[in-house]
TrEMBL record:
Listed name of the protein: Cell envelope biogenesis protein OmpA
Pfam families assigned to the protein according to its UniProt record, in alphabetical order: BON, OmpA
CDD domains according to UniProt: OmpA_C-like
Any one cellular-component term (Gene Ontology): cell outer membrane
Keyword Cell inner membrane: no
Keywords: Cell outer membrane, Membrane, Signal
Length: 250
């Protein structure tokens, strides 16, 4: 996300080629005072975490509209976290917001919140779009993996937390048909890895059934080590290859 302030405050959420959210927030532009810069950074760090904020703001000799700082800080609300691959620009009293949200209800909620953050002298130009189902799944999973106990198909507590988030998104997809695909690294016998990857995919499906996802809407496949996304010769690469993918079939 990129936020452009002042005469350009940009907030951008960056994605990689696989549409996995990088969780990087870039804030840039010119603000009237150092105090305003500090307030904006503090608000964004509270919203996203300090480690995710890249500060490219400058303090310059610019004249802001009356109460501009109050309106901008009000705009920087938790609702912005619903926007991915997006940008918010504030140029004087012109507000432009673009990007993706997961559903129409969120689009309307974000739109309403932005509109209520400013008075009638401001104009909000909104081009938010509802993500495709696949994009919503990819963005929710991000760069995380569904974790299992070592060498087994037993979900860890962290794995269940991620699946709880995935279940919420899947329910919003109106029973779209989804393939759950298990993958492993290349350590050990291929046949054993295929069996393990299938068992893990089946465990994910069973967990999601318990979260009120229709069993008939989910299929499972075990690809074992046959579809790596990273180098199996490194520890980091093998970790990335041990994963669960979610693919919409219709």
């Amino acid at each position: 996300m990129r936020i452009a302030l002042g005469f350009l405050l940009s907030l951008m959420c960056l994605t990689d080629a696989a549409q996995a959210v990088q969780d990087k927030i870039v804030v840039s532009g010119t603000v009237p005072t150092e105090a305003m810069r500090a307030q904006v950074l503090s608000r964004l760090r509270d919203l996203y975490g300090a480690e995710k904020i890249t500060d490219q703001m400058e303090v310059g000799n610019v004249v802001a509209p009356a109460n501009w700082d109050q309106y901008v800080l009000k705009m920087l609300s938790p609702n912005l976290r619903n926007i991915s691959a997006g940008q918010v620009q504030v140029e004087g009293n012109q507000i432009r917001v673009s990007g993706n949200v997961k559903n129409e209800a969120l689009r309307q909620e974000v739109t309403s919140t932005l509109a209520s953050s400013f008075n009638q002298t401001y104009q909000v130009h909104n081009t938010l779009q509802v993500s495709s189902g696949q994009q919503a799944l990819d963005e929710t999973l991000g760069q995380r993996t569904i974790e299992f106990e070592s060498g087994s198909a037993i979900l860890t507590a962290k794995g269940r937390i991620v699946l709880d988030e995935m279940a919420q998104v899947i329910r919003e997809l109106n029973n779209a048909r989804i393939a759950i695909i298990g993958h492993t690294d290349n350590v050990g016998l291929r046949e054993s890895n295929i069996e393990l990857s299938l068992a893990r995919a089946a465990a994910v499906r069973q967990y999601l059934i318990g979260k009120r996802i229709e069993s008939s809407s989910m299929s499972v496949t075990g690809s074992g080590p046959d579809a790596p996304i990273a180098d199996n010769s490194t520890v980091e690469g093998r970790s990335k290859n041990r994963r669960i993918d979610f693919k919409i079939l219709n």
